[in-house]
């Protein structure tokens, strides 16, 4: 049986240390004064909210558009953005997700032209998605669509997989899809700080506080938000337009606006809730270990791993089954889940991982859309001044550039100008029409 190594850090401690020292920490923890009103209020200062603020002010930096972002977690200790593994890939089945992630790659790979002096430490080693005989046809069909839309990946049979990746066991594998370009991973914290720094440089404000309620105009539109401040006071911020980008808490905030508890269109809830996911850092001294250019590899059962730095460490994890979802009250890590569910697949797929030991771990929240596990983007059908960017279910970080740009277009232009994301609107919840990503098994 695997012996667990000492847990050297948790993500919460990691972020607290960041929040206590350094220039980046100052940017994260220090908030602007809460104004009495603004033109656009963005609820949530993680990736989606900060990106929306950036794009709004990027386009209106010479105009008087007052953009305020309110974030309840000043140090981002539990924010989904900074607790993700920072992947960017185009290996999806929905055209919208593929296109958003293609732009995400373009933005990340040329981030200095957008965000100035920021280094996202992009690692261009791609993704390798493995399929059994049952999933091979779906994997092949998805790859065809991805490449038609501009992705660059190739299909590999078992012989080609063994030749390209000699550390890989191809037992029960029929086909692999390898992203040869435009895929990899990056530093989510650096991206978030880049969005914030540039949005602030353009004139956006970032305040610390938690939205606890709303006010309505005589016409029934949202007109103000009640904000609980760090000093214990509660203040009202009036706005013309509101963007709901509160990550895993978006469903809860929506209920404050009677979304899901009202009548007619307001009877339809925003089905976004937190789901806890574990990330384990392992090290192995086994022979034939995956090398530095190893792609982020995804097993047919959903177990994944990738290299983490130059010291022989790997990140790994796996989403639990629906009936095994862990409690979300804390960000504690279940190491028994690694032994029972993650390690057996790793050891079977990569023999070098048989001797792997856990070096550290952390947990983070997915902003999970329980309806169809895809983002909800666009204007709410009842509140004409409320826009939503939430529910991305684990693939949101790579889509922050595209979603923030889309929200800015809807607010400033009244329509999508670059990518048409109308299929991901709230209307599909009303019509009960799911936008499902096809699972590879």
In summary, what is this structure?
This protein is of the alpha/beta class and 441 residues long.
Taking all residues together, what is the mean pLDDT?
92
Distance between the termini: 27 Å
Helical content band: 25-40%
Strand elements, count: 18
Order of helices and strands: HHEHEEHHEHEHEEHEEEEHEEEEHEEEHH
Structure, explained:
It is built from twelve helices and 18 strands. The two termini are 27 Å apart. The model is unreliable at 1-28 (pLDDT under 50). It has 441 residues and is of the alpha/beta class. β10 and β11 (234-244) form a beta hairpin. The protein has helices at 11-20, 23-29, 47-60, 95-109, 111-115, 136-148, 158-164, 188-201, 250-256, 335-349, 400-413, 427-431, and strands spanning 37-43, 67-71, 87-88, 127-131, 152-156, 175-181, 184-185, 205-208, 210-216, 222-228, 234-244, 272-283, 296-298, 304-308, 313-317, 357-369, 376-379, 386-390. The radius of gyration is 22 Å and the shape is globular.
Task: Compile the SSE list and pairings.
Blueprint: H1 11-20, H2 23-29, E1 37-43, H3 47-60, E2 67-71, E3 87-88, H4 95-109, H5 111-115, E4 127-131, H6 136-148, E5 152-156, H7 158-164, E6 175-181, E7 184-185, H8 188-201, E8 205-208, E9 210-216, E10 222-228, E11 234-244, H9 250-256, E12 272-283, E13 296-298, E14 304-308, E15 313-317, H10 335-349, E16 357-369, E17 376-379, E18 386-390, H11 400-413, H12 427-431
Parallel strand pairs: 1-2, 1-11, 2-8, 4-13, 11-18
Antiparallel strand pairs: 3-7, 4-6, 5-6, 9-10, 10-11, 12-15, 12-16, 13-14, 14-15, 17-18
Helix pairs in contact: 1-2, 3-8, 3-11, 4-11
